[in-house]
Amino acid sequence: MGNCNIQNSCSVNNRSREDLLDLITKVSFAMDDTRLFLDTHPDCEEAMDFFRKMMHIRHDLIEEYTERYGALVAYDMWDNDKWTWNDCNHPWLLNKKGGF
Amino acid sequence: MRYMTNNPNGRCSSCQSVQNDSFPSDMPVAMAYVPWQNWNNLYDLDKALAVGTIFPCLNRPFLGRSVGK
Q1: Are A65 and A72 in contact (CB under 8 A)?
Q2: What is the rounded CA–CA span in Å between residue B68 and residue A60?
Q3: Tens digits of residue pLDDT in A47-60
Q4: Residue A48: burial class (beta carbons within 10 Å; 0-12, 13-18, 19+)
Q5: So where are chain A's domains?
Q6: A 21-50 residues inside an 8 A Cβ radius of B
Q7: Complex-level ipTM beyond the 0.85 threshold
Q8: Using one digit for the tens of pLDDT, what is the confidence trace for A10-66?
Q9: Is there a contact between B42 and A47 if contact means CB atoms under 8 Å apart?
Q10: What's this model's pTM, rounded to 2 decimal places?
Q11: 3-state secondary structure of B18
Q12: Would you tell me how many other CB atoms lie within 10 Å of the CB of residue A64?
């Protein structure tokens, strides 16, 4: 499966916010579908390998996104002495043109 | 309760039709069976999200008419 178009989609630091969100969405979707498969095929090594691979990719993508654009989920609000969750420009608040 | 008899000549004892041997013989009739799915070639991530599954074998869009294989 040529599924790892993640690495070559663009180099790490110039991935735009939309690219990152798009990749996070796609990797998360693949993990959800794999989880459904694993529910009925818990011993499938290939599926487990794929799930682990996607898990690492997703973790790195989210870490990158959080560092650059803020937490995607409130549970990741680490380094703030002040609660800035309300100030973050969350992706679900973006309008069609990407602004607020 | 055993619905199917183990018939040596492979014919259904009551109506003599040839039994479909792709199923184990002890499977009750009039039940729905789903073939076991295997982990094989997957879509790449872009296509998977677009069609709604990573598994080509599950990509069965409803086209409003019967579609051949």
Answers
A1: yes
A2: 43
A3: 999 999 999 999 99
A4: middle
A5: 15-93
A6: 23, 25-27, 29-30, 33-34, 37, 40-41, 44, 46-47, 50
A7: no
A8: 445 567 888 999 999 999 999 999 999 999 999 999 999 999 999 999 999 999 998
A9: no
A10: 0.71
A11: strand
A12: 16
